Amino acid sequence: MIKKEVGECAGKIWNLLDTKGITSIDNVIISCDNNTTIVMLALGWLYRENKIIILTDENQHLVELVQHPEFYY
After folding, report:
1. Which of 34, 40, 70, 73 is most solvent-facing, going by the fewest CB within 10 Å?
2. Residue 11: what are its φ and ψ, rounded to 5°?
3. pLDDT digits over 3-49, tens only?
4. In terms of DSSP H, where are the helices of the chain?
């Protein structure tokens, strides 16, 4: 059950970052409408899969989608 919740939250985070671009982890938590644990697990999932990067700006952590170059064959 929790795996499904984390996966759905990861999808929400990906869509949020795709739409808004770089944003703070606090904003991600507010936007996802899940408890903080689920959001943090989803961020960890995306981070482990190299889908996001986490940056530090002064006293906050920012999240951004990894930009993959387009490949032409």
Report:
1. 73
2. -65, -40
3. 999 999 999 999 999 999 999 999 999 998 889 999 999 999 999 99
4. 2-20, 25-32, 36-48
**Residues recorded for the chain:** 73
Question: Quick one: angle between helices 2-20 and 36-48, nearest 10?
Answer: 70
Q: What is the pTM of this model?
A: 0.87
- Output the six-digit token pair for 65: 């989608």
Name which of 59, 43, 52, 54 is nearest 10 in CA terms: 43
Tell me which residue of 71, 69, 24, 21 sits closest to 43, measured CA to CA: 24
Place of tokens 């930009």: 67
